């Protein structure tokens, strides 16, 4: 069986899409990923671990247009045409769309080619826009998703809160595949650091409380913080400049996917603060949480968010209020209590072994494909 996955990133730092594609390849499927490389940073065509990757670059007209939200209409047209060309060369059996900004392409391909369509909703896309754009865009795309949501043959999402949301707007079957990671070992291995080491690698934005985290660590000289990831240029530049002024904070920029787990293992504590007022991130499950679990590391998440609730249920870290005092207290509580830090880390690894690992998730993926 040959599947076409469509995604609006360059397919260089998307662990969910990579894990799904790689698992399908290892199961005997042929997988092609059609990706949008806005900045022309990666090869137009390449093969990554058996996954065929075709990237679309911005045209001259797309470069002139000021915002991605407006460029997207041209991306839809170009991606649809490229998908048809790829289909002529080697017929696809399944279209697998990742997030709302690819769904319209998938629906057109389904109707044109009479192929089954999977909609993989990583988040509530309209709410995701609310962080950077006027609410008008948020409402528009939430309504748009409701209009399109009954076209797929099956839907995949990431956790129970999102499944509940999608079930409220469609009669199409909704499955959960969590962003879990591969288990590397089943034995707890404690970190060995001279200084208590904190780590955040992920999307860099205001809603992740990172500038505040840096200010906290600046006053804790016996704590070391590493921040990596990518985000909007203005925010990333401000964050990097702030980190440069503080001796015990290192800003490392983009981190290759294969380096995330090794760096997590070396850390004492993972930080994953998300704004409880963010209607998207507050109900999402963060990659950081699953990375911490497979490495046996405790995590600090925000109270009254889904990651915070899960952390408390599994007793694998602490939930802090979304303010500097509460986060500082949580960091010091774990720094000053080695026994507690170790106990929470062991609980995290136990949860990964029993349920929250990628092997268990890929079986759900295989079942979805078989049922198509």
Annotation keywords:
6-stranded parallel sheet, 372 residues, alpha/beta, 20% strand, globular, Rossmann fold, 15 helices, 46% helix, 2 domains
Question: How would you describe this protein?
Answer:
The protein is α/β, with parallel strands linked by helices and 372 residues long. It has 2 domains: 2-179 and 358-371, Rossmann fold; 196-354, Glycogen Phosphorylase B (Rossmann fold, 3-Layer(aba) Sandwich). The chain is 46% helix and 20% strand. It contains 15 helices and 14 strands. It has an 8-stranded mixed sheet, with helices on both faces. The protein has a 6-stranded parallel sheet with strand order 11-10-9-12-13-14, with helices on both faces. Helix 1 crosses helix 15, helix 3 (68-89) runs parallel beside helix 4 (100-113) and helix 11 crosses helix 14. The longest helix is centred in the first third of the chain and has 22 residues, at 68-89. The chain is globular, with a radius of gyration of 21 Å. The relative contact order is 0.11.
Largest sheet report: 8 strands, mixed
The CATH topology of the largest domain corresponds to Rossmann fold
* Uncertain runs: none
* Beta-strand percent range: 15-25%
**CATH architecture of the largest domain, please?**
3-Layer(aba) Sandwich
CATH superfamily of the largest domain: Glycogen Phosphorylase B
What is the CATH class of the largest domain? Alpha Beta
Basic shape: globular
Order of helices and strands: EHEEEHHEHEHHEHEEHEHEHEHEHEHHH
The class by helix and strand makeup works out as alpha/beta
Strand order of the largest sheet: 3-4-2-1-5-6-7-8
Q: What is the radius of gyration computed over CA atoms, rounded to a whole number of angstroms? A: 21 Å
